[in-house]
């Protein structure tokens, strides 16, 4: 393997795995740190962790374990994959994880760029935009676990690390990869690099040829396979048919619109945090309901910011999130055991829980359903998944994903 990715959540992992696959690399997603060697012939491995919201010590330990495994597979470059909206808790895992990885790898500079222009995330003058809004006005300020209230990435990162945080502005990036390298400070630093177009990310990829450690969203990987001579290609997909289900634990704006649309045309059931916490809803009861439906049903806990806030005030932020995630994990496990073979999941934390519930250790990446979301196939099983990041996909995403799994559109 040449490039190793440590992803802080599962949707993010499949997002960057798609970028690498489309750039022509043979890639697999590993859910958690594997305890055996990877199959031969892979050029990139993505280790998916559920560390974005974990306590700092745990996130650091898991990231180092992932790094060690990737180094043992031969990787010469490590990418720490974070969200394109730079999601982190107020305690902040991104800075401490990068410090630890830099220590392990001997990195002096860490270029940091979460831009994903195709999905509207751009970094300009150190600030992160979602479309034409600053991050803190994009809806991310209401995220259930990682509210983002500051768009200045230099300030966000500086609050999480003892390292100096430098900045390479768009004007320098536009001058090319040598200009980026020349702009890196002489002393060790984390460096926010602006990118507003894919072309900027390709330039950053070229500049990063000899950098042992990088940090970013999936866009940071756009130009990396070309450094190894890879040529762009569409990943292949073997169709999977059979019963399907949509599981949505994401409360992000895009997901709520997708839920609203899907509900109009398909059987659906809402799960409230209250019902999960008082035990009146269980995975077993939900599975009975799902398996009794004609067509593809939707189970969702997706709720607006006020409902989420009410639940958090009543039961606690972590406790309500954890209980809902465990419900989806158990539900997915029962459904797969009963023949459900197409599962669309909305939400990064939710996807982590579901994939763990399914006991899926290795995922192969198929073609794209939407920017940042590939079809994925669980190794050794007739089971297709789509792990959709909260804010990705258009309103028809769920229907598109289910059809794409069967080979159609
Ligand atoms: N109704 C709800 N009330 C409180 N928390 C919720 C509710 N529904 C989902 N959650 C929690 O919110 C979090 C959503 O995060 P995630 O799945 O990563 O979605 P996204 O990709 O949109 O960020 C999960 O931990 C989930 O369990
Ligand atoms: O970079 C991104 O935006 C995604 O790859 C990602 O990490 C999304 O996280 P969630 O919104 O929590 O699914």
TrEMBL record:
It is an enzyme of class 2 (transferase). Residues 245-398 form the Four-carbon acid sugar kinase nucleotide binding domain. Residues 3-223 form the Four-carbon acid sugar kinase N-terminal domain. InterPro entries: 4-carb_acid_sugar_kinase_N, 4-carb_acid_sugar_kinase_N_sf, NBD_C, NBD_C_sf, OtnK. GO terms for molecular function: ATP binding; kinase activity. It catalyses: 3-dehydro-L-erythronate + ATP = 3-dehydro-4-O-phospho-L-erythronate + ADP + H(+); 3-dehydro-D-erythronate + ATP = 3-dehydro-4-O-phospho-D-erythronate + ADP + H(+). Its EC number is 2.7.1.217. Keywords: ATP-binding, Carbohydrate metabolism, Kinase, Nucleotide-binding, Transferase. The keyword RNA-binding does not apply. It holds the Pfam family SBD_N. NCBIfam families: OxoTetrKin. Belongs to the four-carbon acid sugar kinase family. Catalyzes the ATP-dependent phosphorylation of 3-oxo-tetronate to 3-oxo-tetronate 4-phosphate. This is 3-oxo-tetronate kinase. It comes from Ruegeria marina. The lineage of its organism: Bacteria, Pseudomonadati, Pseudomonadota, Alphaproteobacteria, Rhodobacterales.
């Amino acid at each position: 393997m040449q490039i190793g990715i440590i992803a802080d959540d599962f949707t993010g992992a499949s997002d960057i795995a798609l970028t690498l696959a489309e750039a022509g690399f043979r890639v697999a997603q590993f859910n958690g740190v594997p305890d055996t060697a990877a199959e031969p012939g892979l050029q990139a491995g993505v280790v998916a962790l559920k560390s974005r919201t974990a306590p700092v010590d745990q996130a650091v330990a898991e990231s180092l374990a992932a790094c060690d495994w990737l180094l043992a597979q031969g990787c010469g470059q490590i990418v720490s994959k974070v969200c394109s909206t730079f999601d982190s808790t107020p305690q902040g895992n991104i800075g401490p994880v990068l410090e630890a990885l830099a220590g392990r790898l001997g990195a002096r500079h860490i270029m940091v760029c979460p831009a994903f222009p195709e999905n509207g995330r751009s970094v300009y003058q150190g600030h992160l935009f979602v479309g034409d809004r600053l991050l803190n006005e994009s809806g991310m300020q209401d995220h259930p676990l990682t509210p983002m209230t500051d768009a200045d990435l230099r300030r966000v990162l500086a609050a999480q690390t003892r390292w100096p945080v430098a900045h390479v502005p768009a004007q320098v990036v536009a001058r090319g990869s040598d200009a980026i390298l020349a702009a890196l400070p002489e002393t060790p630093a984390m460096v926010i690099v602006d990118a507003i177009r894919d072309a900027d990310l390709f330039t950053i990829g070229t500049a990063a040829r000899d950098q042992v450690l990088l940090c970013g969203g999936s866009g940071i990987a756009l130009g990396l396979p070309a450094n190894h001579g890879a040529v762009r290609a569409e990943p292949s997909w073997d169709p999977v048919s059979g019963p399907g289900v949509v599981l949505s634990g994401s409360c992000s704006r895009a997901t709520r619109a997708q839920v609203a649309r899907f509900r109009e045309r398909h059987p659906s059931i809402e799960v409230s945090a209250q019902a999960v916490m008082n035990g009146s809803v269980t995975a077993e009861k939900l599975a009975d309901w799902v398996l009794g439906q004609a067509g593809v049903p939707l189970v969702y806990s997706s709720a607006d910011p006020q409902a989420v806030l009410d639940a958090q005030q009543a039961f606690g932020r972590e406790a309500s999130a954890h209980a809902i995630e465990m419900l989806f994990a158990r539900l997915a496990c029962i459904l797969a055991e009963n023949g459900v073979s197409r599962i669309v999941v909305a939400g990064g934390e939710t996807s982590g829980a579901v994939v763990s519930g399914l006991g899926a250790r290795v995922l192969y990446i198929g073609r794209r359903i939407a920017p940042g979301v590939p079809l994925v196939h669980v190794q050794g099983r007739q089971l297709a998944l789509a792990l959709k990041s909260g804010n990705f996909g258009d309103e028809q995403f769920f229907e598109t994903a289910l059809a794409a799994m069967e080979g159609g559109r």
